Amino acid sequence: MSNLWTAASDGDLDRVSQLFDAGHATNDADEMGYTCLHAASSYGHRDLIEFLLARPDVDVNVRDADGDTPLHVCEDILTAKRLLEAGAEHAALNSLGFTPANVAREEGHAFLADFLDSLQSEVEISDERDTKRRR
């Protein structure tokens, strides 16, 4: 029988649900601080991600022992977009000072890194416009 984090890594929604019914909480973490949302995001298990994001106690910006959020460990744009829609911080820094875009680029996910970098550019443009309006 799989534990919570193995079930989440496997995308086993039924098993994760059973383990929650048995007393696990949405943000329960393994010894490295890795949660179900980290695991589901890392493997792009969209059904499980939706299930987790629908839970009232989910923390979309929960950090593991390295300071990584689920957005730091995701590997595809669709997962990243869903996490961002749920409130993930695209500019969050992990314990090494890396943003999710930095991590994506380091892991060889250039399209994801470019997408996340474009969000930073949009924020900078918006901030610049706000500054000009206040003058």
Amino- and carboxy-terminal Cα gap: 63 Å
Number of helices: 8
Q: Shape from CA axes?
A: globular
CATH top level?
Mainly Alpha
The share of residues in helices is 55-70%
Can you walk through the features of this model?
With 135 residues, this protein is an all-alpha fold. The chain contains eight helices and no strands. The chain has helices spanning 4-10, 13-21, 36-43, 46-53, 70-73, 77-85, 100-106, 110-134. Helix 1 (4-10) packs antiparallel against helix 2, helix 1 (4-10) packs parallel to helix 3 (36-43) and helix 7 runs antiparallel to helix 8 (110-134).
Which descriptors would you attach to this protein?
135 residues, 0% strand, globular
In summary, what is this structure?
The protein is mainly alpha-helical. It has helices at 4-10, 13-21, 36-43, 46-53, 70-73, 77-85, 100-106, 110-134.
Indicate the topology:
Elements lengths: L3 H7 L2 H9 L14 H8 L2 H8 L16 H4 L3 H9 L14 H7 L3 H25 L1
Helix pairs in contact: 1-2, 1-3, 3-4, 7-8
